[in-house]
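Fold this sequence, please.
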Amino acid sequence: MDFGNTKIHKTVWNLKSISYIKCKDIWSNEPDQCSAVVKPYQAAE
């Protein structure tokens, strides 16, 4: 669902890379910890 404040982020798909994401709302409120941890994986073929 798009509320008009959506951002799209891109990065290289590296199996050894872990992305730590910390979000902030429009009032600059943010959590103490990461909002998400993104780990790529290799799908079985």
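DSSP finds no helices and two strands in the chain. The first strand starts at residue 19 and ends at 21.
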